[in-house]
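Might you be able to consider the sequence and fold that I enclose below?
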Amino acid sequence: MSSNENRPGGTADWHRRLEHVRGGGLTSDTNQTSGMRRFEAISGKTVGSEKLWMGRTHVGPATNSGDHHHGEAETAIYVVSGHPVFVFAEGPEEVRVETEPGDYIFVPPYVPHREENPSTDEEAVVVIARSTQEGIVVNLPSLWAEVDPNPGGGPGRS
């Protein structure tokens, strides 16, 4: 038995080609939330990923996204530019996390939140990575909306 046969998934899986997505090749054909524009780079449908979604989000000056969550996906966010504020509920209070370029945010599964851009002249841009192959977005009427972790017997998507 060769050492290649001992690798998880066999030789074919570990010899798959690398996929290159150019910055200008991102698509907006992904789930969206009001007040922001999401662009998909890495996903099941773009490169065949099985456990990862990655993309970029833009929030214009003086704009807030709608309240939403990302289903069962863990979400990591890296702030590229601007000073976005990430808002979530803790009991009856809104908690505001103010960020700057170079900061990271972790959003656990099913946690309702929104992004705000308080700047009147600068767009906020973040890079997002999620632990699912597609960009799950469940838009909500508020941060305190009931979240069903298993709507219709499957993951929540809208």
Remarks:
- The radius of gyration is 18 Å.
